[in-house]
Amino acid sequence: MRILCLNGPNLNRLGKREKEAYGTFTLAELESELMQFAEQQNFELACRQSNHEGELIDWLHEAGDDKLDGIVLNAGAYTHTSIAIRDAIAAINVPVIEVHISNVYNREEFRHHSYMAPVAAGQITGFGKDVYKLALHALLMRNQRG
User: Fold this and answer.
1) 0.85 exceeded by the pTM?
2) Which domain holds residue 64?
3) What is the number of structural domains in the chain?
4) Which sequence positions are flagged as catalytic?
């Protein structure tokens, strides 16, 4: 099984920004934890981060072309603004699970709308960095069910 974890804008600032919302862990620490989890569960995982919308779209397209088994996506603020990323998800045959470290529904009103949710396989929000492992687990279970 091959899964891609994509992180969008400002997630490279984890551990430095808004610690009350995002915690004190860094992106490198998070990715290291996820890679260990992948090794334990015996699947392939690649992690990428970009602050650029077009690069995220390119990676989504590549994932569809490469026939990956799933994508965990934290699109950051693009969740609430990017129809282009929404369309990229809709254009591929790979299940995408949308994740958010903070509970976006307990935050500013503009964060309550997700362009990704209608085309994602699911959404996990508000459980800190655990949202990533929960999403990976969901993709593993989905793959087992066929």
Assistant:
1) yes
2) 2-145
3) 1
4) 22, 100
Residue 118 token pair? 């209608």
Residue 93: φ, ψ to 5°: -100, 50
67-104 pLDDT tens trace: 899 999 999 999 999 999 999 999 999 999 999 998 98
Query: Which amino acid is residue 8, in one-letter code?
Result: G
d(CA 137, CA 139): 5
CA 82 to each of CA 96, 132, 137: distance values in angstroms, whole numbers, following the listed order: 15, 21, 26
pLDDT in tens, 117-142: 999 999 999 999 999 999 999 999 99
Domain of 19: which CATH number? 3.40.50.9100
Q: How far apart are CA 29 and CA 145, in angstroms?
A: 31
Distance from C-alpha of 15 to C-alpha of 22, rounded to nearest angstrom: 7
Residue pair 121/141 in contact (Cβ under 8 Å)? The answer is no
As annotated, the binding site for substrate includes 74, 80, 87, 101-102, 111
Residue list, annotated binding site: 74, 80, 87, 101-102, 111
Dihedral (CA of 71, 74, 80, 83) sign = negative
